Amino acid sequence: MSWFTGIRARGLPIVALACLAVLLVAGVFVSVAHERAMKLELAREAGAQADLLASAVSGALAFDDADAAQDYVDAVQVNPNVLAAAVYDDQDRLVAGYARAGEAIPRVAPRGATPTRFHDGQLTVVRPVTQGGQTLGTARLRLMDTPASQRFSRNAGTMLVLALAALLIAVLALTQSALRRANRSLSVRAAQLGEANARLQQEMVEREKAEEALRQSQKMEAIGRLTGGVAHDFNNLLMVVSSAIDLLQRSDDPVRRGALMEGMRQAVERGSGLTRQLLAFSRQTPLRTAVIDVGEQIEAMRILLERSLREDIAVEIDVQRPLRPIEVDVGELELAILNLAVNARDAMPGGGTLTVSVRPQGEAVCIEVRDTGGGIPPDLIGRVFEPFFTTKEVGKGTGLGLSQVYGFARSSGGSVTAASPAEGGAVFSLCLPATDKPLPVGPESPPAPQAMPGPTGVGHVLLVEDDDAVAAGVAEMLADLGYTHERAATADLALELVRGGRRFDLVLSDMVMPGALNGLGLATELRTLDPVLPVILTTGFSEAAATASRAGFRLLSKPYGLDDLSAMLTGIRSG
Fold this sequence. Notes:
The chain is an alpha/beta fold. The protein is built from 14 helices and 17 strands. Helices cover 51% and strands 19% of the residues. α1 packs antiparallel against α3, α3 (148-170) runs antiparallel to α4 and α5 (254-281) packs across α9. The radius of gyration is 36 Å and the shape is extended. The model is unreliable at 1-10, 393-398 and 443-457 (pLDDT under 50).
């Protein structure tokens, strides 16, 4: 027994030291792991706050509203750990920022920098500001890392356990019961930490769900505003067409039938204009610029403006010369002026005067649209260009008219402002940069094709169209132009016809169709099978149109009429 006791006494210090070393290593590992976990949580929370700031200022950056961006930046001061914050635009120019005493506004993040970085006891977080897939700038936060006092208090329990373990090892032979109690205490503490971590994870999941629900709610609100207004406008257009069709069947008077058909044509043009307005808002339609005399362009719009307004609204046009030319998309310019005119019309329910003035201003030419309505309330004047924002009743408008004007001005390198003078009414100023390019000597566009019976009996057309109604209409136009045709409802079927040896002089195919093969894929396959076979692609979807143009295929945009189709076919025939 005494020998066993001696061996135990000699081996006890070694065992005690080994246990102490193991516990020390484990304690350091646990402390480091806990510190890392806390840093990750701090980075996650800071990232979430930076994401919220980036989301909040996206609208302000989209509309160059530095005051609104500053308000959002100031709002993050409620977090005492935030030392400084800043918002930069896509040109790395400071838009808004603040810093606590002794701190500097965060600088522009270098290209390729880590979005979340701990450095010198501080945490820096950088998030991109995006809207509709476009990067508008960056949001940057600098927060204090966990203070030393907090780290000490966080690790105090671990250090106390290590100290207690060393003491227990020194008296291991005499205090076995105390060691067991300490172990039980450690187990309880570990369980408590596990429960706390589980609660923290649950809170994080719930917060992410709440943020996602908020984003979804905002998205659905925007979609609801859009669909309500667009549905109203398109239903009105369909009503015009529907009533005209009914009346055409009941009337043999050529004058009345001509007026009805003209009304249907105008409804189609208005529907096409609404679609173009939506695409302009979403920036899906590329601008086709031309050098013009804006004064002459506005003068030429007088009849169009008068027809767009009511009889109780007088239209006055004032052009101050000399004027320098401008380079813009003429169609988008006319759409912007019409949107401003219609907005003014709605502001004058009892009639009034619409004045369109054109004047030089430095290196720009400004178009001023003034009405004699009730003006714009001060609390709304900052929101009139906001997408989907409208003061009209539900279903009376999409809220896209003025946002199209804003988008056109930005895309053209200009600006647009709104004001409500003390004398009444509202004034919208659209300023576009002047150009040193000369005005074209000849006409801006080739003359419209002359009415002609068409190239009678010159070819057999493969018509690829999945919509029966559209196919029927195009078939009638082809027949009227003298072409024979054969229809395929899918691109796969059309490809089978060509591969099977059927001969065609031309392929006229829609781009967006059901099935694995779309119109662009069909055109690509046909180019390989028969490089000399002409292919015309048609679509009303701007993204598809851009894809077809980049691939080098002829494109006929929907909706198109008989003259458009005839001009395209004649061009292919002459080419």
